[in-house]
Amino acid sequence: MISVGGYYCSGRSNGHHLQGVAMVISNRLQSSVVEFTPVDECIMVMRLKLAFGFMSLIVVYAPTDVCKLDVKEMLHAKVASVLDRCPQRDICVVLGDFNVVSGCDRAGYEMSVGPHGSGADAGSKNRLLFRDFARSQKLRISGSWYQRPNPLRWMWYSDVGNAAKKIDHILVSTRWRILQNCRVYRSAVVPIINWLWLPSGSISKLPSGPMITLGCFPWTG
User: Fold this and answer.
1) Total domains in the fold of the chain
2) What is the Cα–Cα distance from 182 to 33, expressed in whole angstroms?
3) Domain residues for 131?
């Protein structure tokens, strides 16, 4: 576990810096960090105190599509366990590299997958596992709810440049209605989600205010 300035990361328990997940918090939000919990090389948790309550961020780096299914199932089960331990009134956000597209077929997943999903729907147990996880945890796959040109959607490009996918995702609890935007900024190549930072009052009322911007990236150093 490392926490230096605005840089937080979680890696292997044996101290070998081979895999891990990380998050960078802006100086403006440093005072809002009330808890940081490294789980393992694939999961970390951060809790923020905001004007309208608390937000729990779960950062995830999922196995690739070629990895064995039981490994992926264990990862999703562990993330579900982490979510269950988050305070009930917290706004929960799960973000990171899930190594899977959302798909476009919304049948049975109308609350989780939006009208602008990406990728083919057939033949991937990994995709089904991801969608089932989002549905069971009542999470919305944010990027699938906003129509964007492809350069503002794709997060992964093949080495030879003949394939592109959106495999990094930000999942937000369907309980809350404060999602404003989700897009990729090409200069940073990270998915960005914008939240209204409410100065006071109920979060059901959405007054104008400064924005909280969240991004994520895997750490492999």
Assistant:
1) 1
2) 23
3) 2-218
Can you give the pTM of this predicted structure? Answer: 0.79
Query: CA torsion sign, 7 to 13 to 17 to 20?
Result: negative
Inter-residue contact 86 to 150 (CB < 8 Å): no
1 by Cβ neighbours in 10 Å (0-12 / 13-18 / 19+) ranks as: middle
Q: Which helix (H) or strand (E) covers residue 97, if one does? A: strand 91-97
Residue-wise pLDDT for 21-37, tens only, equals 878 777 777 888 899 98
Spatial contact of 130 and 98, defined as CB atoms under 8 Å apart: yes
DSSP 28-91: GGGGGEEEEEE-SSSEEEEEEEETTEEEEEEEEEPPPTTS-HHHHHHHHHHHHHHHHHS-TTSE
pLDDT tens profile 130-141: 999 999 999 999
In 3D space, the residue among 99, 91, 47 whose CA is nearest the CA of residue 218 turns out to be: 99
CATH number at residue 37: 3.60.10.10
Strand, coil or helix: what is 140?
Answer: strand
Give CA–CA dist 94/140, Å, rounded: 10
Extract the tokens encoding 65: 């599509």
d(CA 51, CA 212): 11
**Of 98, 72, 76, nearest in space to 216 by CA:** 98
